[in-house]
Amino acid sequence: MLQTLEIAASRETATRASPGSILAASFVGTAIEFFDFYIYATATALVIGPVFFPAGAPGVQQLSAFATFAIAFIARPVGAALFGHFGDRVGRKATLVASLLIMGLSTVLIGCLPTYATAGWWAPAALCILRCGQGIGFGGEWGGAALLAVENAPPGQRAWYGIFPQLGAPVGFVLANLGFLALSFGLSPESFQAWGWRLPFLASAALVGVGLYVRLKLTETPAFKAALSHAQPERIPFATMLTRHGRAVLIGTLAMVAVYAVFYLSTVFALGYGTGTLGYARPTFLLFECIAVCFMALGTVLSGAAADRLGRRPMLLSGMAAVFLLGFLMGPMLGAGTWPPVLGFLCLSLLAMGWVFGPMGAVLPELFPTRVRYTGASVTYNLAGILGASGAPYIAQELAAYGGIGFVGLYLAVAAILSFVAVLAMRETAHD
């Protein structure tokens, strides 16, 4: 079906945006969305607990912060279903603009919230509401950006085009970490906790403006136009997805679990563990993670390029095997405390994450027909976020406190096994 629509799309005479502008729009938007999401993830590890929650037993503030981190992941499938409905019925462009606006507004407002010391429990309550807003906006973002790239790709290059929204993740992460790194050098710890942490959230307003400028210049994707020329859109895409494509949702969701787990254990949990248990200075560990995320970008490009030639499944299976092995290296390397093995583990884990993340920009859309592709890819991607990411920092914190860092590694290995089995059950989609 996808190949048929590609051929039909290639015969279109309608004016289309250039490949460069299409890829730029898919990349820039996701980079901004990931920046918004990661500044909260970084703030969760560094400052959200003491700013928004009362002091209590040791670790309670940090666990409360990780709980608010999970809220957005729970809201993301709601946003995926909502934006997927309109993306499959109205079109990709308008939906992408709306998701970026909701995400950006929620992020900026988080930077304006009062603290627990000034507003009491109203502060964390408002924080939770805005985290839901972030989750809903993000839930519609990735699927639309992936479709924007993949549905404009020439035949045989879908995985290559699909890496551009994926590259938004490491770029957004680096921007977020560099922002906090600059604040760490420029402000005292007291000033950072009092007001400095708000600056990256407020800066999101300017980045969203850039993203909107790029996306408002887009046209609709050829594959979506071709699908509409054959039949009216589905009345309720979500219902069609569940009744006709439930197996694809299940397999795609489980395949993504290890991707989320390895990333958030290597970033959010590792940052809290490194600055807390291991005693690293915040700027030092943020610099480690900025270095390591470059390996994620490298893995994304290499695996995405190879996936068009060798197939999606071989790249994913090899990556899942690497994540499994990393689970057993976490204790000896991250738990060692000295910087060479700690930095080495972060680089290896994010390289493996990029290796399995790169092809997913094409794989998840390819699991679904065009008429429900926005809904299917978005819901699948964000359901996996609940299973693999929402509770990962919280669970890891509890496991580390209970049995040490080695238990966290076992948790990562189990996630890799789950995703490996799901990929084995997945059909090869490279030539669909």
Could you explain the architecture of this structure?
With 432 residues, the chain is mainly α. It has a single domain (19-217, 244-424), classed as Growth Hormone, Chain: A (Up-down Bundle). 82% of the residues lie in helices and 0% in strands. It contains 18 helices and no strands. The longest helix is centred in the middle third of the chain and has 39 residues, at 237-275. It is globular.
Q: What is the residue-mean pLDDT, rounded to a whole number?
A: 86
Regions with pLDDT < 50 over 5+ consecutive residues?
1-15
Q: Which CATH architecture would you pick?
A: Up-down Bundle
DSSP summary, beta strand count: 0
Sketch the major β-sheet: none
Sum up the overall morphology in one term: globular
Count of folded domains: 1
Number of helices: 18
Distance between the termini: 7 Å
CATH class reads Mainly Alpha
- Report the CATH topology name: Growth Hormone, Chain: A
Order of helices and strands: HHHHHHHHHHHHHHHHHH
Helical content stands at: over 70%
What structural class results from the helix and strand content? Answer: mainly alpha
The CATH homologous superfamily corresponds to: MFS general substrate transporter like domains
Q: Estimate what percentage of residues fall within beta strands.
A: under 5%
Radius of gyration: 21 Å
